[in-house]
Design goal:
Mean pLDDT: 96
Bound molecules: 1,3-dihydroxyacetonephosphate
Strand order of the largest sheet: 1-2-3-4-5-6-7-8
CATH topology: TIM Barrel
Shape: globular
Number of helices: 12
Structural class: alpha/beta
Distance between the termini: 24 Å
Order of helices and strands: EHEHEHEHHEHHHEHHEHEH
CATH architecture: Alpha-Beta Barrel
C-alpha cells in the first residue's frame, strides 16, 4: 500500500489495555464519529486478542487496524509469537515495530526490528517503526546519534520502494506515559533531523512524502501545537487513545493544525 502524508496520521496504541467488550464499545463510538474525521488517517492498535472483534466493528469505515508486534517467521514452532500472515488474516494493515517498551522489556534490538520490518513489508503490512532516545541519552547530547543509528540499522537493506511503505514514529522515551511532552520545537528538531537523514539516504522525493509521527504524552490540549510543526505528520498516541472522546478530540486538533500549515 502506498502511503502519503497529505492528511495527518493518528494511531492509537492501546498497549496492554481493555477487554473485548471494552474494545468494541470504544471503536463503535469512534466509528460513529469517523465520517467527520475523513481528513485524517485513523488507525487503532489493540492487543492481539481483540483484533478480529475490532475489525468486525470498523469494517466499512475509514478506520484501519494495526497490531503492536509481529514475528518474522511465517509459521512454525515459535510458542507465543504471531506471524505476518496471521496479522493479515485478522484484518491488520499496520504493525508497530520496535516500540521502546518492547526494546526495554522484551529484548528487541535494532537487528530484530530490521527483520520484523522486512517480514511485515514482505506481507504487505505497513510497519510503524518506533525510535527515540532515553532521558540520559538526551542529557548527554546523544539524541541524534541514537535516532540516527536506529534509522540506519532498522532500515538496513531496504530499497526505495520499501521505504515508501514505512511509517516512522519518533517517541522520546522520557515523554512516554510521563505526562511530560517534548516541546514542539524539541520534537521538530528531531523530526527535521529524521527527514534530513531520509533525504540523504533515499532522496528528496521519498523523504518529503514520508510520514513521521510524534509520540509521548500526546493529549487533546497539546496536539495542535505539535502538529503545527513542519515535519510532524501525525501522532502515535498511548493513554489518550483509550477513550473514543479524547482520540476524536486529538484527531480534530490534528486536522485543524494540518490545514493551517498547508
Ligand atoms: P503515551 O501517549 O501514553 O505517553 O504513550 C505514547 C506511546 O508509547 C505510544 O506508542
Amino acid at each position: 500500500m502506498t502511503i502519503s502524508n497529505e492528511k495527518p496520521f493518528l494511531a492509537g496504541n492501546w498497549k496492554m489495555h481493555k477487554t473485548i467488550p471494552e474494545a468494541v464499545e470504544m471503536v463503535k463510538a469512534l466509528k460513529e464519529e469517523s465520517p467527520q474525521l475523513t481528513d485524517a488517517e485513523l488507525v487503532v492498535i489493540p492487543p492481539y486478542t481483540m483484533l478480529s472483534e475490532v475489525k468486525k466493528v470498523i469494517e466499512g469505515s475509514t478506520i484501519q487496524l494495526g497490531a503492536q508486534n509481529i514475528f518474522w517467521e511465517e509459521k512454525g514452532a515459535f510458542t507465543g509469537e504471531v506471524s505476518p500472515p496471521m496479522l493479515k488474516d485478522a484484518g491488520c494493515q499496520y504493525v508497530t515495530i520496535g516500540h521502546s517498551e518492547r526494546r526495554q522489556y522484551f529484548g528487541e534490538t535494532n537487528e530484530t526490528v530490521n527483520k520484523k520490518i522486512k517480514a511485515a513489508l514482505a506481507h504487505e503490512l505497513t510497519p510503524i517503526m518506533c525510535i527515540g532516545e532515553s532521558l540520559e541519552e538526551r542529557e548527554k547530547g546523544n539524541t541524534m546519534d541514537k535516532v540516527g543509528t536506529q534509522i540506519n540499522s532498522g532500515l538496513e537493506g531496504l530499497g526505495k520502494d520499501e521505504i515508501r511503505r514505512i511509517v516512522i514514529a519518533y517517541e522520546p522515551i522520557w515523554a512516554i506515559g510521563t505526562g511530560v511532552t517534548a516541546t514542539p520545537p524539541q520534537a521538530e528538531e528531531v523530526h527535521s533531523f529524521i527527514r534530513k537523514k531520509l533525504t540523504e539516504k533515499y532522496g528528496n522525493e521519498i523523504a518529503s512524502y514520508a510520514i513521521i509521527l510524534y509520540g509521548g504524552s500526546v493529549k487533546p490540549a497539546n496536539t495542535y501545537s505539535i502538529l503545527k510543526e513542519n515535519n510532524i505528520n501525525g501522532a502515535l498516541v498511548g493513554g489518550a487513545s483509550l477513550e473514543a472522546d479524547s482520540f476524536i478530540q486529538i484527531t480534530k486538533e490534528a486536522i485543524k493544525a494540518y490545514k493551517e500549515k498547508k
